[in-house]
Amino acid sequence: MQKILSLIDRLLHFLLITTVLLLIIPVSLQIFSRFTELIPRYMWTEEMSRFFFVWLIMLGATLGVRERLHFDVDFLPELSPRATHVLLRLSQTAMLVFSVVILYWGIEFTKFGWNQTSELAEMPMWWIFIALPVFCGLFLCWITSSIRVTSAKVLTRGP
Asked: Where in the chain are the domains?
């Protein structure tokens, strides 16, 4: 399982870098067309940059969850190890339920937009809509992995 997660992690890093590089192209075209007369003003560049930006956010958020870079709010006083473990389990369960709900509605949203095309670039809208179910599916992988790691630590050391 760890090999698969490691492979997905490397693939996500590659896709994130590729998305940033691809985002540079339409944004640069848009900037150069506004300030120079060397190239025509392309309308599709704004739409494409939005699409790449959505994918960039989803891929980056997925890696943020994987590497536990999301923020934590500490508002409870120092608790016992057992209480800390129970709160960790509760938060992991809440995140798991949340991602299952968002995955379901993301799939429904993708189905809704399956036959739509974007106005300017005339791209299939499912290319952008599918970012949400992909994000939630990967989120589920990382949360499940985190729960397994936490369970293994508890079994070896106790709560």
From this structure: 2-70+79-157
